[in-house]
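Note to self: the last two entries modelled the partners one at a time, which told us nothing about the interface. This time every component goes in together.
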Amino acid sequence: MDRLETRELAYFLAVADELHFGRAADGLGITQPALSKTIRQLERRLGVALFERTSRAVTLTEPGHVLAHEARTALDAVSAATERTRRAGTRDPRLILAMKPGGDAGLLPAILAAYQHEPDVLQIEVVFGGDRARMVREGQADAALLYTPSDDARGLDTEMLLSEAPLAVLPASHPLAHRATLRMADLTDENLHKHDPAGDSAKGSISELMHLIALGRTVAVLPQSLTTPLREDLTTVPVTDIPPSVLQLAWPAHSTSLSVAALARAAAKAAAADNTSPSAIRSLRGTAR
Amino acid sequence: MDRLETRELAYFLAVADELHFGRAADGLGITQPALSKTIRQLERRLGVALFERTSRAVTLTEPGHVLAHEARTALDAVSAATERTRRAGTRDPRLILAMKPGGDAGLLPAILAAYQHEPDVLQIEVVFGGDRARMVREGQADAALLYTPSDDARGLDTEMLLSEAPLAVLPASHPLAHRATLRMADLTDENLHKHDPAGDSAKGSISELMHLIALGRTVAVLPQSLTTPLREDLTTVPVTDIPPSVLQLAWPAHSTSLSVAALARAAAKAAAADNTSPSAIRSLRGTAR
DNA sequence: CGCGACCAATAGCCTGAAGGAATGGACCGG
DNA sequence: CCGGTCCATTCCTTCAGGCTATTGGTCGCG
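The predicted structure of the combined assembly is written out below.
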């Protein structure tokens, strides 16, 4: 049983994404016949049909769907191997922590401070990125601050730092502003701005959003940490029927790095201290699953 | 930045394991110069030295150690892709559950029964294997019953089923047999049989071990479920300073299979029912970490 | 029905990279 | 200083991956 090559997996994924041999070949910088031949050979080697082809359309078979999924994680693992090996070879290795701007719930200074007291510390470099889970999976970062359920931390080890109740942000004058709690159904009439953590780009986007809310143009549901400090003319109401946003530190599941372990300990310590501080009204549990 | 090929990773691992180009090449079925050339090229592509060579000895550099680790998980992921795709192509796909004989703490019947009531069920096939975590990682099994800390479940999703206190098994006449609890230090004088879950082969090994204990030839520390039923002439005493053996169901971290999800639900349900049953004296927490 | 557009598969050829055989060079032990 | 060990280098061969050109099947449209 010979082993698949990453080239074959990458070629397959190109076709699986495009569902079109010609365009996929273009994207790969090779010609269509070469690609067709490779995919055919892949199917022969696996003993399984991956695509259903007609001269009009290409679709994935059931095994094709499985391979599309598995191939992605396998290629991620190969990329990670390259990346981490390269980084291990640099003169002064750093610990790269991925987060999104403001995505630390104010916890980062405490984490960094606690980290300095750990053994086996490296210089920490904070980088900002969109798909932070992927950065960790591909080895571009050693750890990341993620929010579940919006980020997908599967395949990573995680340490839960804090759980934040989702808050609806409303104008102080809004009819629902006096309610003790809300359900999502209460907000269906509003022009709801669904918070998409992955899509955030500029740092100003939150304050812009707040501005729009104050103008009555929209309302939003955000994790608590993003709502402070809150403008005078806005108010927040907990939403009870969506799961809380959980901030967690994530790192590669098979990590053996002492530095990453130290960071995890530091983060846990900082989060524990924060959770017991009087200013925090946290760990409200959502009801949805 | 071109992508590494699995061939390169496999060749590298062969050398990393043997620390000898000639023997590694033998094992791979190629000649030594071909292997040397490939490794050199790999080092050039990564921009990093992987081995320290003298004509007398070959050793891994620091980046080499990193790659050895990363390459293994990457190759596992590729194997898993192959394996799962092939299995998805078989006529009637089954759900393969890996365990070791007797390694279910008596929970398997309840799990299977609960599973039948779930939606999206497949036929379950139980297989026995030594390195069950690896079987899941490589796609030879869809789920496994593992014991932590002896099995390494990193990189897998898990559901904790039950936690068992470690019990010292002694002849009833043993001087320590009357103690309420023991520490490992108490047993240093004995000819202690360290339980190695991975090394278990035949089903008879436990009863043979019990026989040896009854003869006073050895004593053993085992998770509770392996000690029942207990011979008349033996007794057990909890050991407090080693971590409890935790039985868990593990499956690939990035699984999207409805059937695996159903099995996880079923196992959780069966374990919950078992934990509340009067016969169980479980979840004793160990103190070690 | 016939024609063109579209798209994957096939055929035939070429190039480069993987591998083999022979050899060189460094090191060590006797 | 010689022989053995082991990795690197050189040179040659083979074949798999890629390209161009073409075929064959299907759909849409006049």
